[in-house]
Amino acid sequence: MRQTWTTTVAGLALALAASGPATAKPPGPPSTDAVPPIELTITMDNGKPVCAPAELLVPANADIVLHIVSEADRPVTLTIPGQFSNGLVEHADGDLVHVMSEEGYLVKQKGQGTLRLRSKAPGQDEYACTSTANQSEPFKGRYVRKEAAK
């Protein structure tokens, strides 16, 4: 039996798709439909990073877009416990580098980027912005996830 180039490529594509890496179970449907982008700004004060807003308020279990803009003159790492792991990040682009075993993103000097992610269940965590020069003195804020109004 003779195979054509098209059937060979199609078969190879199906085989690769079937044997692809195992992925984490995708989260269920979002708790709310459209959420406007949320902006986080990083500045420096006396050589230390400062993130605004200090209370990052997002809907719980929702698909959100976090736009990060850094005015800092050095790289800064943004960490939110558990938010950047377990398959919750759908897409990251711009001047962001995934670091620290899925716990954070390094934002390049004077960089900006976008994270598309599913927020965690209702609750709150401490988030931090840390400069490589001042790792012992991070900026700490609150990452608050509220249940969507029904």
Share in β-strands: over 45%
Largest sheet: 6 strands, mixed
- Total beta strand runs: 11
CA radius of gyration is 19 Å
The run of helices and strands is HEEEEEEEEEEE
Structural class: mainly beta
Helix content: under 10%
| Strand arrangement across the biggest beta sheet | 3-11-10-5-8-7
N-to-C terminal Cα separation, in Å?
A: 60 Å
- Contiguous helical run count: 1
Overall mean confidence score, pLDDT: 81
Please state the oligomeric state of the protein chains shown. Answer: single chain
The coarse silhouette is: globular
Low-confidence stretches: 1-25
Protein name: Anaerobic typically selenocysteine-containing protein
Keywords: Signal
Give your account of this protein's structure:
This protein has 150 residues and is mostly beta strands. 9% of the residues lie in helices and 45% in strands. It contains one helix and eleven strands, in the order αβββββββββββ. It has one helix at 5-18, and strands at residues 38-45, 48-52, 55-59, 63-70, 76-79, 89-94, 96-99, 104-107, 112-118, 123-131, 139-146. A six-stranded mixed beta sheet has the order 3-11-10-5-8-7, with no helix packed on it. The N and C termini lie far apart (60 Å). Residues 1-24 form the signal peptide. Keywords: Signal. This is Anaerobic typically selenocysteine-containing protein.
